[in-house]
Amino acid sequence: RKMVERITLPVVDFSCMSLDNKSVPPDSDPCVRLLAEQVQLAFSTTGFLYLKNYGIPETQVCTTDIPTFRL
């Protein structure tokens, strides 16, 4: 049997940079700094992350033709 290592996928809240926002906050905004730290940590530890609250409607995400791959 092949052993599979399980990892916990980091969940990052993207709401401060969401497409739903009327304007983009400055880089000095604490929300932007926290987001940057979370993204950097996720990619430097697991290499992956799950973004939530990014502002793209689910209907648009589901209909976008994105190439997929299988491991």
Note down, in words, how this protein is organized.
With 71 residues, the chain is α+β, with helices and mostly antiparallel strands. It has helices at residues 30-45, 58-63; strands at residues 11-13, 50-52. Strand 1 (11-13), helix 1 and strand 2 form a beta-alpha-beta unit. The radius of gyration is 15 Å and the shape is flat. The model has no long low-confidence stretch (mean pLDDT 87).
Looking across the biggest beta sheet, what order are the strands in? 1-2
Largest sheet: 2 strands, parallel
Note the run of SSEs as H and E.
EHEH
Judged by helices, strands and strand pairing, the structural class is alpha+beta
Contiguous runs where pLDDT drops below 50 for at least 5 residues: none
Number of separate helices: 2
- In angstroms, what is the radius of gyration? 15 Å
Average pLDDT reading: 87
Q: Tell me roughly what share of residues is in helical segments.
A: 25-40%
How far apart the termini lie comes to 17 Å
Count of DSSP strands: 2
Tell me, briefly, the overall form: flat
Indicate the proportion of strand residues: 5-15%
List the helices and strands and how they pair.
Elements: E1 11-13, H1 30-45, E2 50-52, H2 58-63
Parallel strand pairs: 1-2
What labels would you give this structure?
single chain; alpha+beta; 2 strands; 31% helix; flat
